[in-house]
Amino acid sequence: MRIALAAIGLVGLVLSFSTAAQPADYPAHYQQIIDASRQERSLLVYSNMAAYNWQPVIEAFNRHYPWITVQTLDLGSGEVFERYYSEVGSGARTADLMISGSPEQWIEFVSNRREAVEYVSPELANYPQELASPLPGLYTVSLDPMVLAYNKLLLAENLRPTGLQHLADLGEQEPGVFRGKITTYDVTEAFGYAINWAFVRDRGGEEAWAILSRLLPNVRPERSAGPMLEKITIGEYVAGYFISGIVLFPRLERSGQILGWTYMDEGTPFFMRGMAIPKHSTNVNSAKLMLDFILSKEGQEAFGRGGLTPYRADVDAGEFNTYRSILERIGGESKAIIVGYDEESLRQLDDFQARWESLLGR
């Protein structure tokens, strides 16, 4: 577990912000939230993002609200919820704001346990609601792409896959190169299951299963993107699919031109990274300020610099990708596979995992 701590800064800077005003287009009562946050002083965030993702966000947030010390804990997607439930059960202090990439856990948290504060952000008007707030009190931080990666030193140009069908073809044509040398997320993990389920749903059901039935015999799954990319880099694997772009892209230069990647022919899964204020937050006003800042144009740009994928329409691509710029590159919305919050995925969980694992040969 890694901890990122943003300190308040110089006394003079704090004094210069002592009368910090609300954003101009926010409702008049918003100033009450700002004023109340001064009595809280700190904000504890549980997320599945690293310190480098958070750094530009916290720096920009503290320029507006310098009296709030922000502490972020980098946890696994499921661990975000497990830690919260454990701490609530023991009466310990817990998260003020939660961010995770686990649709299955968010459905349980929001719809079944009713643990999210049903806060309505003034930034919601700047987004399509189905993307920005798919469940009451649940907001989307970013829409991050899943891509296909490969080792350029081990795969000649004619063996570099462009999609899952192509990768399945290559596996059958060149078994000596690809057998046991392909990786992806394990569907026994919530993250991997959500991506695979959305792919099958959006790409023809049995047609998608036909591709997986040819692909999975050559696959060795992993639990997270970091080990996948490390093993592709050293040659233990030659390729991997449904790999998180926000983990891959910062590694490209560091890999020494070893890693190659592409968006997939069949379409690009975009993961909705969820965010909510839990009911047991003790610094709820500070949490509202951070949630609204993340959804603001400035906050989305800051997360873009931190490696995530902004999806707000008025954020332009430049030093980072945006959801809109990726859509333009892959051929529009018909090529986007949104990994969202469908309760049908929970009902199909056991059967889907069993079928996937049988194709894997477990």
Automatic annotation (TrEMBL):
Keywords from the UniProt entry: Signal
UniProt keyword Protease, yes or no: no
One Pfam family of this chain: SBP_bac_8
Domain of life the protein comes from: Bacteria
A single GO cellular-component term on record: outer membrane-bounded periplasmic space
Annotated signal peptide: 1-20
InterPro entries: SBP (IPR006059)
PANTHER family reported in the protein's UniProt record: PHOSPHOGLYCERATE TRANSPORT REGULATORY PROTEIN PGTC, THIAMINE-BINDING PERIPLASMIC PROTEIN-RELATED
Protein name, UniProt field: Iron ABC transporter substrate-binding protein
Organism field: Limnochorda pilosa
